[in-house]
Amino acid sequence: MTITKMIAKDEWRYWWRSKLATSVMLVGLILIAGSSILTAKQMTDAAHERAHLQSEAEEAFFSQPNRHPHRMVHYGHYAFRTPPPLGIIDPGIDAYTGDSIFLEGHRQNSAMFADRQASSELAIFGALTPALLLQTLAPLLLVLIGYNVITREREARTFDQLIAQGMTPLKIMIGKGYALVGVAGLMIVPLFVAIIFATLDGEPFVSASLFMVGYALYLLIWCIGIVLASTMMRTPSASLGALLAAWVVVAILIPRISSNAAVSLVDAPGKIETDFAVIEAVSKVGDGHNAADPAFTALRANMLQQYNVDKVEDLPVNFRGVVAGAAEANLTDILNKFAEERMQVEVAQANIARYFGWLSPVLGIREFSMKVAGVDLETHHRFLRETEALRFDFVQSLNRVHAEKLTFADDANRSSNPEAEKRTRVSAENWKVLDEFDFSSLPANNRIENASMSLMKLVFWVVLLLVLCRFVGRRAL
Amino acid sequence: MSNIVVEARNLSVMRGQTPVLSDINFEVRKGEVFALLGGNGAGKSTTLHTFLGLLPPQSGEAILFGKAVHSDVASVRSKVAYLPEAATLYGHLTAIENIEYFLSLAGIKKSSNEIVQALDRVSLQKEAHNQNMERYSKGMRQKTAIALALLRETPVLFLDEPTSGLDPVAIDEFNQLITSLAAAGTTIVMVTHDVYGACQVAHRIALLRRGALVGSFEADEGGKIDTETVHAAFAERAAS
Amino acid sequence: MSMFSSFTRELRFFLKQPAAIVLVLVAISLSVFSVWSGLSEVERQQETIERLLVADAKDRAAVLAKESDYGGAAYYSFHLTYDPPSRLAFAALGERDTSPWKHRIRMLALEAQIYESDTANAELAQSGQFDFAFVLSILMPVFLIILLHDLRASERAAGRHDLLVATSASDNNLWRSRAFVRVILLSIGVLIPFLFGAMVSGASLLSIVSVLGIAIAQILFWSFLCLWASARSYAGPTIASGLLAVWMLTTFVVPAMSDAFIEAIIPAPEGGDIILTQRESVNDAWDLPKEATMETFVKEHPEWAEYAEINRPFEWKWYYAFQQVGDQSVADMSEKRRAAILKRDKAAQWFAFLSPSSLTERSLTGVAGTDAKAAMHYQQHVRNFHGSLREYYYPLLFKGAAYEAITLANLPRFKALSDRK
């Protein structure tokens, strides 16, 4: 134990005296700390902004004057997705999917306004979030600092001397590993601070600490990998070359290859294309605005029979409202079916890309981070589902008002008779049917459960590299 | 005068901020073997590097064939072959391929027959000729580098610790080779810390200590320099 | 000694170095993969457009057959608009994964339709595309750094440096021809798959030459940077670290910071605000007196003043008038947003000079017509087409022409900006 500590201390002294290592470390720390502060500010601003817009939208809905309830169905409502607390570290796909959605009757709109569309598009790798830095650039910095931990000793022939002092290669490797882990530890200090802020913002302790553990594991993978490569290679140049090649493959190539593979393997027709099928299916439902549409003949017959009357005018409820409700329900069934299909295709694609996480820890940590933070594709889908539920809910509540508070005669004659029109305007009190919308993350244990597979990928890499270390450590002399 | 081939005139050289050679003067005539003898860090290799145009003089001049090295490095290099200390060639090439490559760098084309002859002359084993050099011992590498220097057929040879890594038999062979080259008119400048080796082949020896010349010895009529005298002087004046 | 003979000498020398050859082979195969994946993505987009065109025509015909007035025809008939990938798009897919290149629009308020995005899977868009532009702008510098950084340092470490310099007639010539061989082999290896792809997709000579020009500029920049660094007397890994730090800063950090900076100094109206305002206006129209709407409408379109009287509770011309008034209410914001996006793009052009990678990527997407400018052109084209729909229907609606199905045979047809650039 003391020997390995001594080796680690010696390595630290070497780094401290090397201009290159200290400047690389400094650049890394400044980048990570700077981006943590900026991203945290950006995301909290966005959270406040969206929460504000949400209550404003609700305010606007409630303050609409007395009018025909179906007008409110078309007036519609907005729902906003507020980022979760850990979003200050990993905004996930926030910049690529819209963060707001317009909800109205008879339609399912897609989320609007991805930031990327209006950005200057200079940043090929996206914004410099702490997540991107820790996942992609921190490993490169670790490589630049640590590629020669052992090849340097070999070059200076001090490796043989250490062995001659009775040290085993494995012990030297562990010592060097400690030293590198120390550097990695420095790099996640800003992450730790950001996580504390997220916890204060409502992130449960379990998920926050697991998030931290995931990143620690991830950087550990790189530390072990670096020591391993430095042991296996003979010269500093070779160890740097091998580690750089590994970094390029794992951090730059595989992520892109994974998305190409996903797109090639699972065909995802665009929204416009599926809309044809949707329109065709929907056309069979009948127009809910037209109570005389033949699609509602059966409904009419049922209702007449149920209330034992002869004409729709004699029904105790407004048949036009009933039709609107029935049409909306049928339509929503169809729309949901298509929406579910689309989401399943997207998840299938994402899952293919995620398999590559077994090949690249960068993809592993990315998946883990997005899942624990709750900023992954599934969360976006949950947002779509929840907003759809909200939409269906308020539309149907309004349709119920339409059916129960209006008479059929007034409703039918409102365009020709101004008096009847006045009577079809219901009190604004009825707009209170709208539920407040507050999109929040899944409970911590659900997110952790979702992230378990990605955590396995990280653990797999740690174990694999440790086994290799033992193997190499026995033979490296 | 015209037979002076190599000349250092008030030569001072710096490496970075540290002065390595200060105010050196010597002359080497055609067909002469001149040995610069000194301990570690005396400035031996620096002297050679200056004459090869690898280092610029701080003041004074390094002169070859009456021309300052600095004024025309390329033409100087075409007249000089250099054998570096612990010469390494390319490990992934054979001795013959290495020699071909380096000769072509100098713009020389030799038939493989000539190359094999040169390798024989330095007595590199036949079976090694077509082996990749990464398998060579230190001595075999040195022999190949010597063969390369011979094949350049330059009027001047600069040798940096030429016999390091050679076994005693090879050293004897090497010394004979040097003597016969000098007899044929090649001017040879070697730097070494090996007193015995220098006395064996050199016509003149200069002692170098901390960048300054501290003594010189000429061969007697028999062409020999007394090893004891030089050794004593070296121990007294040159050993750093 | 002639340049040619030193080139052939170094070529022969290079061909005996397994590590360098492997690297060049890897570069070639990545380039091949990128071209293949670009071509197949473009083909996918082309096929999608073709399928959509057929379905669109069929759908419109079916819808129109059911209609009995022009208002209904305009309401129910959608029109496909699209921006076909250029013949060079395979090399630089650019914005096409985040910006829409297809819209299906109808004669309702356009501002409610134009921001719909029919883009791919968000989680995949995050990883980005593996196209030729990526190989050239991101990976090429890394290859060059690995191949060139220790040109001298490796010889120094192996103890051959002095012998090489002392032996060669001109050592500058030696390093230059060595670097030249490596750069040439790598460049040819990376560019040939592109040329092949360009031939397959039938790109114009001019566009190919432009891409080659961009490629050469990028390669030369990094080659000279590497050569300059490799002439320093540091150890190879130190030089490599320095070069990689430059690469990392200019590829990741500088572009992201410029991006954030540009967004901060050039504010753009939020798209969400535009839609919100537009919606309010359209919704309010139902409650406003119809004359108020028509007045606002006529102010912008005086040619319909004498037909602007609305007598019945619902008339199509009133309906479409308030749709247009909705667009008018946000015309200013929308204009500002587009201007801001173009201004950001212009600023980005300058900032790109701080990052060779971004500059290369931008130049390539510029040549390939897959950049922000092209997306804006497409959007403008869609706006124009939407305008032509209004021009077509308004006389029929305002003058109260009797419905004749045959008239609709003359419906404006969307024509893509260019079939394939």
What characteristics describe this protein?
heterotrimer; A: 477 residues; mainly alpha; three-stranded antiparallel β-sheet; 19 helices; B: 240 residues; alpha/beta; Rossmann fold; 8 helices; 35% helix; globular
List the helices and strands and how they pair.
The complex is a heterotrimer of chains A (477), B (240) and C (421).
Chain A (H helix, E strand, L loop, with lengths): L1 H16 L1 H44 L6 H7 L1 E4 L19 E5 L2 E2 L6 H4 L11 H17 L4 H5 L2 H7 L4 H19 L1 H12 L4 H28 L3 H30 L5 H13 L13 H11 L11 H37 L5 H13 L3 H29 L2 H6 L4 H6 L20 H32 L2
Helix pairs in contact in A: 1-8, 2-5, 3-16, 5-8, 5-10, 5-11, 8-10, 8-19, 9-10, 10-11, 10-15, 10-19, 11-14, 12-14, 14-16, 15-19
Chain B lengths: L3 E12 L2 E12 L3 E6 L5 H8 L7 E6 L2 E2 L4 H5 L2 E4 L11 H11 L6 H10 L16 H14 L4 E5 L7 H16 L3 E6 L2 H7 L2 E6 L2 E7 L8 H12 L2
Parallel strand pairs in B: 3-8, 3-9, 6-7, 7-8
Antiparallel strand pairs in B: 1-2, 1-4, 4-5, 9-10
Chain C lengths: L2 H12 L3 H49 L3 H7 L2 E4 L19 E4 L16 H6 L4 H17 L4 H6 L2 H7 L3 H31 L3 H26 L5 H30 L5 H15 L4 H11 L15 H36 L4 H13 L3 H27 L23
Antiparallel strand pairs in C: 1-2
Helix pairs in contact in C: 1-8, 2-5, 2-8, 5-8, 5-9, 5-10, 5-14, 8-9, 9-10, 9-14, 10-13, 11-13, 12-13, 13-15
Query: Percent range for helical residues of chain A?
Result: over 70%
- List the total number of helices of chain A: 19
How would you characterize the largest beta sheet of chain A? Answer: 3 strands, antiparallel
What string, H for helix and E for strand, traces the elements of chain B in order? EEEHEEHEHHHEHEHEEH
Largest interface: A-C, 82 and 95 residues
Question: Outline of chain B, from the CA principal axes?
Answer: globular
Distance between the termini of chain B: 34 Å
Q: Give the percentage of residues in beta strands of chain B.
A: 25-35%
Overall geometric form of chain A = elongated
The end-to-end distance of chain A, rounded to whole angstroms, is 21 Å
